[in-house]
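Throughout this chapter, every protein is written as a compact record of paired, labelled lines. The reader may check this reading against the record printed directly beneath this paragraph:
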Amino acid sequence: MRVYLPATVALLRDLVDRNEFAPVGGTGFALTPALRESYATGDTEELEYSAMLDAARASLRLIAAEDKPFYRRVVVSVDVDATVRPDLDFSVVKVSGPVPLSSIAAVHVDTGEAEDAVREAAEVIDAADLGDPDAEFVLGTAEDHELAWYVPQEIPFLLELM
Protein backbone atom coordinates (compact mmCIF):
# COMPACT_ATOMS: atom_id res chain seq x y z
CA MET A 1 0.00 0.00 0.00
CA ARG A 2 1.29 3.51 -0.77
CA VAL A 3 1.37 5.36 2.54
CA TYR A 4 2.14 9.04 3.07
CA LEU A 5 3.99 9.73 6.31
CA PRO A 6 4.15 13.24 7.78
CA ALA A 7 7.64 14.40 8.67
CA THR A 8 9.87 17.41 9.25
CA VAL A 9 13.31 18.37 8.00
CA ALA A 10 14.77 17.14 11.31
CA LEU A 11 13.13 13.75 10.78
CA LEU A 12 14.56 13.65 7.25
CA ARG A 13 18.02 14.15 8.73
CA ASP A 14 17.37 11.19 11.06
CA LEU A 15 16.30 9.13 8.05
CA VAL A 16 19.64 9.81 6.34
CA ASP A 17 21.60 8.99 9.52
CA ARG A 18 19.72 5.74 10.23
CA ASN A 19 18.74 4.54 6.73
CA GLU A 20 15.19 4.12 7.98
CA PHE A 21 12.25 6.34 8.78
CA ALA A 22 10.37 6.07 12.07
CA PRO A 23 6.92 7.62 11.57
CA VAL A 24 5.74 9.58 14.60
CA GLY A 25 3.26 7.37 16.42
CA GLY A 26 3.19 5.08 13.38
CA THR A 27 0.62 7.42 11.84
CA GLY A 28 0.29 7.64 8.09
CA PHE A 29 -2.27 8.48 5.43
CA ALA A 30 -3.38 6.38 2.48
CA LEU A 31 -6.14 5.74 -0.02
CA THR A 32 -8.38 3.70 2.26
CA PRO A 33 -11.84 2.32 1.41
CA ALA A 34 -13.36 5.04 3.62
CA LEU A 35 -11.50 7.78 1.73
CA ARG A 36 -12.63 6.34 -1.61
CA GLU A 37 -16.25 6.21 -0.39
CA SER A 38 -16.11 9.82 0.83
CA TYR A 39 -15.61 11.08 -2.74
CA ALA A 40 -18.34 10.91 -5.37
CA THR A 41 -15.76 10.89 -8.16
CA GLY A 42 -12.01 10.74 -8.53
CA ASP A 43 -9.45 8.33 -9.86
CA THR A 44 -6.82 6.59 -7.76
CA GLU A 45 -4.19 9.25 -8.41
CA GLU A 46 -6.50 12.07 -7.28
CA LEU A 47 -7.51 10.22 -4.13
CA GLU A 48 -3.90 9.37 -3.26
CA TYR A 49 -3.10 13.06 -3.70
CA SER A 50 -5.82 13.82 -1.14
CA ALA A 51 -4.16 11.42 1.31
CA MET A 52 -0.80 13.10 0.66
CA LEU A 53 -2.35 16.50 1.44
CA ASP A 54 -3.63 15.07 4.74
CA ALA A 55 -0.04 14.03 5.52
CA ALA A 56 1.22 17.50 4.58
CA ARG A 57 -1.25 19.03 7.03
CA ALA A 58 -0.08 16.60 9.71
CA SER A 59 3.47 17.74 8.94
CA LEU A 60 2.40 21.22 10.04
CA ARG A 61 1.45 19.78 13.43
CA LEU A 62 4.90 18.19 13.74
CA ILE A 63 6.58 21.47 12.75
CA ALA A 64 4.53 23.35 15.36
CA ALA A 65 5.74 20.93 18.06
CA GLU A 66 9.46 21.39 17.31
CA ASP A 67 11.60 23.80 19.35
CA LYS A 68 13.56 25.16 16.39
CA PRO A 69 11.65 24.08 13.31
CA PHE A 70 12.68 24.36 9.71
CA TYR A 71 9.53 25.73 8.08
CA ARG A 72 9.00 23.29 5.24
CA ARG A 73 6.36 20.58 5.18
CA VAL A 74 7.72 17.11 4.50
CA VAL A 75 5.89 13.96 3.40
CA VAL A 76 7.64 10.60 3.00
CA SER A 77 5.90 8.28 0.51
CA VAL A 78 6.44 4.61 1.29
CA ASP A 79 5.24 1.24 0.06
CA VAL A 80 4.46 -0.82 3.18
CA ASP A 81 1.69 -2.75 4.86
CA ALA A 82 -0.55 -0.60 7.02
CA THR A 83 -3.62 -1.02 9.19
CA VAL A 84 -6.66 1.14 8.47
CA ARG A 85 -7.80 3.30 11.40
CA PRO A 86 -11.57 3.70 10.93
CA ASP A 87 -11.79 5.30 14.39
CA LEU A 88 -9.91 8.31 13.01
CA ASP A 89 -10.21 10.31 9.77
CA PHE A 90 -10.94 8.67 6.40
CA SER A 91 -7.31 8.41 5.26
CA VAL A 92 -5.55 7.55 8.53
CA VAL A 93 -3.55 4.32 8.74
CA LYS A 94 -1.08 2.83 11.22
CA VAL A 95 2.38 1.64 10.20
CA SER A 96 4.12 -0.78 12.55
CA GLY A 97 7.72 0.11 13.15
CA PRO A 98 10.39 1.94 11.20
CA VAL A 99 10.35 1.93 7.39
CA PRO A 100 13.61 0.88 5.70
CA LEU A 101 15.09 3.20 3.10
CA SER A 102 14.41 0.54 0.45
CA SER A 103 10.63 0.96 1.00
CA ILE A 104 10.70 4.73 0.47
CA ALA A 105 9.33 5.68 -2.94
CA ALA A 106 9.75 9.46 -2.74
CA VAL A 107 10.01 12.45 -0.46
CA HIS A 108 7.90 15.58 -0.93
CA VAL A 109 9.21 18.85 0.54
CA ASP A 110 8.18 22.49 0.35
CA THR A 111 10.43 24.83 -1.59
CA GLY A 112 11.99 27.86 0.07
CA GLU A 113 9.20 30.06 -1.31
CA ALA A 114 6.73 28.39 1.04
CA GLU A 115 8.62 28.98 4.30
CA ASP A 116 6.77 32.13 5.41
CA ALA A 117 3.37 30.60 4.66
CA VAL A 118 4.33 27.36 6.43
CA ARG A 119 5.56 29.26 9.50
CA GLU A 120 2.28 31.18 9.69
CA ALA A 121 0.27 27.98 9.19
CA ALA A 122 2.20 26.12 11.89
CA GLU A 123 1.37 28.93 14.31
CA VAL A 124 -2.39 28.52 13.76
CA ILE A 125 -2.77 24.79 13.07
CA ASP A 126 -4.49 24.13 16.42
CA ALA A 127 -6.98 26.96 15.87
CA ALA A 128 -7.70 25.63 12.37
CA ASP A 129 -8.34 22.16 13.80
CA LEU A 130 -10.90 23.75 16.11
CA GLY A 131 -12.71 25.38 13.17
CA ASP A 132 -11.38 28.96 13.22
CA PRO A 133 -12.10 30.28 9.69
CA ASP A 134 -9.23 32.80 9.78
CA ALA A 135 -6.79 30.05 10.73
CA GLU A 136 -8.19 27.84 7.95
CA PHE A 137 -7.49 30.67 5.50
CA VAL A 138 -3.87 30.85 6.69
CA LEU A 139 -3.56 27.07 6.25
CA GLY A 140 -4.96 27.39 2.76
CA THR A 141 -2.20 29.83 1.88
CA ALA A 142 0.44 27.27 2.88
CA GLU A 143 -1.42 24.48 1.12
CA ASP A 144 -1.44 26.51 -2.10
CA HIS A 145 2.29 25.73 -2.33
CA GLU A 146 2.93 22.45 -4.12
CA LEU A 147 5.43 20.09 -2.54
CA ALA A 148 8.52 19.33 -4.62
CA TRP A 149 9.22 15.66 -5.37
CA TYR A 150 12.54 13.91 -4.71
CA VAL A 151 13.76 10.33 -5.11
CA PRO A 152 15.30 8.84 -1.95
CA GLN A 153 18.84 9.12 -3.34
CA GLU A 154 18.44 12.91 -3.53
CA ILE A 155 17.61 13.39 0.17
CA PRO A 156 21.22 13.92 1.39
CA PHE A 157 21.82 16.49 -1.35
CA LEU A 158 18.54 18.24 -0.61
CA LEU A 159 19.44 18.52 3.08
CA GLU A 160 22.90 19.81 2.21
CA LEU A 161 21.33 22.65 0.22
CA MET A 162 19.05 23.74 3.08
Remarks:
- Residues 2-155 form one domain.
- Residues 78 and 105 are 5 Å apart (CA to CA).
- Residues 44-65 form the longest helix (22 residues).
- The mean pLDDT is 93.
